[in-house]
Amino acid sequence: MPFSRSHRLRFTVAALLLWAGWHRPARADWLSDWNQAALVAGRDSGEISPEISRTMAMLSTAIYNSVEGISGNYNLYTQGTYTGPSGSAAPGASIQAATATAAYTVLSGLYQSMEPTFFNLYSNQLSTLGGDPGLASGINFGSLVGNDILNWRSNDGWADASDITLYSPVGSAGHWTESAVDSAQLPGWGNVSTFAISGTAGFSGTLGMTNSAYIATNAYATDYNAVKDIGSATSGTRTQSQTDAALFWHAAQGTTSNVGIWTSIAEGVVTSQNLSLEDSARLYAALNVALADAAIVAVDTKYTEDFWNPEQAIQNGGADGNALTIADPVWAALLGNPEMPSYFAEQGIFAGSAVPILELFAGTNYAFSVSFDTDGDGFPDMTRTFSSLADALLEATYSSVWGGISFEKDALDAAAAGDQIANTVMNNQFAPVPEPAGALLLAIAGMLSFARRRR
After folding, report:
1. In this predicted structure, what is the pLDDT of residue 444?
2. Which tens digits make up the pLDDT trace of 252-311?
3. pLDDT tens-place string over residues 43-71
């Protein structure tokens, strides 16, 4: 009979405690093994970016709290009803064992059919820790943290997000229309509980007026004509580099999505900056909760504003009441007809939320290259090179315009919202624990402030 997950854990602990080996130092690189396992699981399950971003946020926060529940150098991650681990790590608990167990627990809970694959990775990692007296207590703590995260997120709204009855088409000019083949994707994802921000209010975008009023403006006409020119499947204006960028950042279903691209960039930062296990866990957690919240905000905005995409707009330009927009009934976008409204653009909000966090760890002059598997066959087939993270932000933001699936307003407003999300994440989560003297000064300052208010 195959081992259940709990039986496998007990078997692994027993086997490793009987095996005497050398205790190796903490390794940051094995976190990337769990990143890739999660991304591949999402891809092979047919998930799209919001769903993958949720998985990555759950994985990375479980790893982060497993690390900080032992090391205690940064504040534990908490959000809403989740107040952190439901128990404490025993003294001397192995951080490495805790992180591996937390990762294994989360991914096995989310993708139960793939548990044997996760167990192979897990057992291979633990085999390097034989002889560590804190192995068993690390495993116990990691299991506790992982299960806490699974229980917290079990009713976060994700299960109902694909219910197509949550979207009611308006059917008039300026509003998005489902195709005859495909229904709206994840129309309820905007209702999923956020990971770091207090909610979508204050982050979701708006056209500033009704859709019918907006498509009559000069600003809309400018965006319309720009994407009509450069985003066409047969555009003679778009450069080869812009075409490649559009295809690269499109990261369509069947790939590990834009989340996979930004994870690869983060892994490059970990390696180039020689980050410790602790700092690596902090980077991945900050990045992934920002991306997950960006996805929630983006989808909330998409279905609230319900703005049509360029292909629908240009084919029906004669119905928008704007004399500056000329219809082209056969116009087609380079990247096709998306299965969601266009405002916000996913590429822009993900880039806007990722770059400020990555810059905190790598600096503003970090130059890099990143490769991606754009066709989902498991092998990277395109590489982009950037002089800075800001350079990547600019390209990712405009890539959806070059691909003909977003107007410039969709892209720029999304990037601005992403930046706001990133700053909120780093201002409210993952902060260093104050030194005792600093904590005492803060307490004294608070007491003095209270005393002044009492006068």
Report:
1. 46
2. 989 999 999 999 999 999 999 999 999 999 999 999 999 999 999 999 999 999 999 999
3. 999 999 999 999 999 999 999 999 999 99
Q: Which helix (H) or strand (E) holds 126?
A: helix 115-126
**Long-range contacts for 266-273 (Cβ within 8 Å, ≥24 apart)?**
266/354, 266/358, 267/32, 267/35, 268/368, 268/370, 269/358, 269/361, 269/362, 269/366, 269/368, 270/28, 270/29, 270/31, 270/32, 271/29, 272/362, 272/366, 272/368, 273/361, 273/362
d(CA 239, CA 402): 9
Residue pair 357/430 in contact (Cβ under 8 Å)? The answer is no
Picking from 437, 237, 222, 190, the residue whose alpha carbon sits closest to that of residue 334 is 237
Average pLDDT of the chain is: 91
pTM confidence score: 0.91
Assign 3-state DSSP to the chain and report helix, strand, coil percentages, each to 5. 60, 5, 35
Least confident of 25-39, 157-171, 285-299: 25-39
User: Two tokens at 334?
Assistant: 């380079």
3-state SS class at 180: coil
Six token digits for residue 289: 């909760």
In 251-305, alpha helices (H): 257-272, 277-305
Q: Name 213's Cβ contacts closer than 8 Å, sequence gap at least 6.
A: none
Name the band, by pLDDT with cuts 50, 70 and 90, for residue 434. Answer: confident
List the one residue out of 90, 452, 96 whose CA is nearest residue 280. 96
What is the rounded distance in angstroms from the CA atom of residue 299 to the CA atom of residue 454?
46
Instruction: Please state, in angstroms and rounded to a whole number, the distance separating the CA atoms of residues 149 and 313.
Output: 42
Sign of the Cα pseudo-torsion (358, 257, 65, 202, in order): positive
The predicted structure's pLDDT at residue 179: 76
How many other C-beta atoms are found inside a 10 Å radius of the C-beta of residue 439? 11
Q: Sign of the CA dihedral 158, 159, 160, 163? A: positive
State the Cα–Cα distance between residues 169 and 154, nearest whole angstrom: 30
Question: 388 burial class (0-12, 13-18, 19+ CB within 10 angstroms)?
Answer: middle
Q: Rounded CA gap, 415 and 432, in Å?
A: 27
> Which token pair is 350?
């993900």
